Amino acid sequence: MIFDELYADRARCMKTSEIREFFKLTEDPSVMSFAGGFPSAEFFPMEKVCEVVNGLIDEEGKYALQYGPTEGNFELRKYLAEKMTREGIPSTVDNILITNGSQQGMDLLSKVFLNPGDPVIVEEPGYVGGLGAIYNYEGDRISIPLDKDGIQVDLLAVKLRKLKMEGRSPKFAYLVPNFQNPTGISMSLERRQQMLQLAKEYNFIILEDNPYGEIRFEGEPVQSIKSMDTEGRVVYLGSFSKTFIPGIRVGWTVADESLIQKLACAKQATDLCSNSLGQRMAYRFASSGYIDTHVSSLIARYKEKRDLMLSCMDQHFPEGVTWTRPQGGFFIWVTLPEGMNARSLLYKAIERKVAFVDGAGFFVNGNGKNTARFAFSEACPDKILRGIAILGKVMHEELAAFKKAKTA
Ligand SMILES: Cc1ncc(COP(=O)(O)O)c(C=O)c1O
Q: 362 in helix, strand or coil?
């Protein structure tokens, strides 16, 4: 059967992320990989999960294994509304939609807001899952470069004026303000305020995705954009994937009640409801205070990995290569000298059994060929020590060859 001529126009453009395809190359267990940005499975509270799941099945199995409301389990929504309120985002149950991971929030928002060709502001580089959701609904991704304080709002202001002159305006801006994937960069308070101001001026929504915000190693938390929003213009995405476990696929969307209802309509046709067992697990773990204690221990353990990776990079990476020093999250962003190709470096590294992801896939405009993302979240200390040392050697060799070719 040839499906090509039957596909909807919308589906014709869909493709899997190049980055995810590339992970397959790095799945060889003998490869020391800093490619995948998964949480560390060693940190999953396996025994406690067994105990809680057994209790759940015994005590409320007939609900935990049943379909549930599209909007999500009431108790969990109530817990999350209170949590959001404590975090400066006044919410009630009606402001909360439980989703299959925060990824589904991006999909639903794109589904309800995007017509083909609608402009959407994205970060450059940006999170591939968000970029993919927008792409699948045929949004026109307009990328604005980041600097050390996040998205460059002055460049965005210029772009918005230009779009206006063309009679166009973005539907929303997709941002990851804390410890962004892929760069580890956080947006300053001033930028967050300026971003909200621009959103008001040009009447677009901000989609604030915050899966890493609680994994902060140092520095003071910065106010969320949603907490400064007085009009319901900001939609906030939260997730249990990094603070607890991703396999339950439980995330949440916080928005105005009317928008939650629209998103719930869109969700109903997608999956009827989120994972009932997963939601009840999340509720038990969260409401007992277990997740808060767990997050404190995660912070200490991920910080050790970040510190180790940074000190190995300091020791082994050659002059001319630069990298971010994230205050939280899972990722370090590496920039090679202009003109060097991170993909070629990656192929050389894989021959020596070390992997990372080259950065071009996080850009929507073909830029970023000299960049790379390193995840410190999953690798064990021994692999970080050995892998970064090997990579340092490969970088020295590649850099020498690059300089030679340049002067030849
Ligand atoms: C920035 C960002 N947003 C969302 C997600 C998806 O998270 P979830 O498991 O909640 O769907 C990820 C996962 O890596 C991410 O990095």
A: helix
